[in-house]
Design a protein that fits this description.
Oligomer: single chain
Shape: globular
Distance between the termini: 21 Å
Structural class: alpha/beta
Order of helices and strands: EEEHEHEHHH
Number of strands: 5
Amino acid sequence: MLILGIDPGTARMGYGLVAYERGRLQVIDYGCWETSPAKPLSLRLQILYRSLQDVFDRYRPDHVAVEELFFNKNVRTAISIGEARGVALLAAAEAGLPVFEYTPLQVKQAVVGYGRAEKVQVQAMVKTLLGLKEIPKPDDAADALAVAICHAHSYRGEADFNHSWK
């Protein structure tokens, strides 16, 4: 199974592709798309949408895993992340891909074994679980890989998928 993990954001959207077969994880690709705050929001969202389409076309993932919005005190950040999540969900739906969503707590629990783990602990486990020499950079890419790993460890078959594509 090829999983695309997404860490949404309008300034930076991280992505991480992980192959998961017979209990083994293998990193395929990862990175981050950045958009300039000097550009209008509509163009920034379009850049992210097209970047996602390119990854879908190039790799043809089986599943897309997206981090759910964690709302803290910064409303502007929450709105920005929500807009980026919407683009990711739309791009996946347009590509006919099933989408699975995970809270930051679920991601931390699946990757580290502790739902309140610190960001550095998650990044260190991503490095270890994927057999990488270094922690993936930027942080958004490491976070996206963590979301993909979470899905690999959490997905139990089509019973987990509650959307109808027919």
